[in-house]
Design goal:
By secondary structure, this protein is of the alpha+beta class. It has five helices and 16 strands. Strands 11-7-8-9-13-5-4-15 form an eight-stranded antiparallel beta sheet. Strands 3-16-14 form a three-stranded antiparallel beta sheet, with no helix packed on it. A three-stranded antiparallel beta sheet has the order 6-12-10, with no helix packed on it. A hairpin with a 5-residue loop joins strand 4 and strand 5. Helix 2 packs antiparallel against helix 4.
Length: 235
């Protein structure tokens, strides 16, 4: 974890880089793209319209991958005390009370954010405190927006205890296309809003489990921006 970081100038904050998790994927697919486009162009007289189609398709696929591995530089602009921010870009698909039986073993308020292929897939720490639990659970790869995906899909939990003694869980969940969940948080780490929590490759969701009575600041279907949108205020 990077620790507490000073505020940075807005000009730098708006810059976008590519996430290091995509380096090998982009290099390999980039080489394939160059080869396919080069051959298609050299043999365009033979391939005709099909050669141009190949160039267009592979170019679009590569652009989608580049878009997927974006990693915006963001700094939360506001008070962090008792604030819970969105851990991911996407849309709110669930706001409800649920039984959480893997760690808390009680009723919790769950806010779920679904990430499509067009969203940034970097994940941020949702609140400040100390990481008290990190665990990975193997599972299925059903569509991430389904309710049972929270407990049956491959997932990774990060539990944070705030300075006020409140525990918040963020659960990274693999989707139908996701095949790798990366979690950077380690037990015992101090963590801060603006820190990266991890990365999920190719479509997924993040669930945040909050104590009952927490004031939710988002609505169903609302778009979220990771590390910027306030999703809740802890009591």
């Amino acid at each position: 974890m990077e620790g507490n970081k000073p505020l940075i100038h807005n000009k730098r904050r708006n810059k976008i880089r590519l996430h290091h998790e995509g380096t090998n994927t982009l290099i390999l697919t980039g080489l394939v793209w160059v080869v396919v486009c080069g051959l298609s162009w050299n043999f365009r007289d033979i391939l005709g319209w099909f050669g141009y189609l190949l160039i267009a398709v592979f170019t679009i696929v590569y652009c989608v991958l580049v878009n997927f591995f974006r990693c915006p530089i963001r700094m939360f602009q506001g008070p962090t005390n008792k604030t819970v921010v969105a851990p991911a870009d996407g849309h709110v698909v669930v706001i409800e009370e649920v039984d959480e039986n893997e760690y808390f073993h009680d009723r919790r308020l769950m806010v779920s954010i679904f990430m499509s292929l067009t969203n940034v897939h970097a994940n941020w720490i949702p609140c400040e405190g100390t990481v008290v639990k990190v665990a990975h659970q193997s599972g299925n790869f059903m569509k991430a927006y389904l309710p049972k995906a929270s407990t049956e899909n491959e997932r990774s939990m990060v539990v944070i205890r705030t300075p006020h003694g409140v525990e918040v869980m963020a659960r990274q969940i693999a989707g139908a296309m996701a095949r790798r969940i990366v979690t950077y948080a380690k037990e015992g780490d101090e963590c801060f809003i603006d820190d990266h929590m991890g990365f999920i490759k190719l479509g997924s969701r993040v669930d945040v489990y909050l104590p009952l009575g927490t004031e939710v600041k988002v609505k169903m279907g609302q778009a979220t921006v990771g590390d910027e949108t306030i999703i809740a205020e802890l009591k």
